[in-house]
Structure of Alkyl hydroperoxide reductase C:
Amino acid sequence: MTQSIINTEIKPFSATAYHNGDFVSVTEQDLLGKWSVVFFYPADFTFVCPTELGDMADHYEKLQSMGVEVYSVSTDTHFTHKAWHDSSDTIGKIQYPMIGDPTGTITRNFGVMIEEDGLALRGTFVINPEGVIKVAEVHDLGIGRSAAELVRKIQAAQYVATHDGEVCPAAWQPGEDTLAPSLDLVGKI
């Protein structure tokens, strides 16, 4: 990413996802009106990927209770997602849409395509209900992500979105003190 994607609107896309036993169409319009996570990973039937997608599945109910939908994306097809879902206990517990991006359009839209391999980096993007990217995190292929930490980041993003003039300090958890940036705070933290 040569330019920050933070505070930009998601770009148009149209894709097919495997979701709850069906193939469904997904576009950028489906991400509007609620908080969304777009969760890129390199490929189905690999090693770190199932641990991440399983971890996300374990946190999915919590994310849903927060009004968040999760969309996993790889450059595999939706058919491959179904085959993986049907053959792996870990992937079989996934209830969120698994988007196939064989053309790489969505992966390129978010700036996480590894062109020489045709695969995605491990990219996590939190999108607000207006379709604006509020969190962007990209990992190298060998570094797995934590859904628990993602939940905390979304809680902070949702808090900031509804509390004008307040910001969340490092490691903030719901119910803890926030900060109201002002001249009085300069040099006191």
User: Anything to note?
Assistant: The radius of gyration is 17 Å.
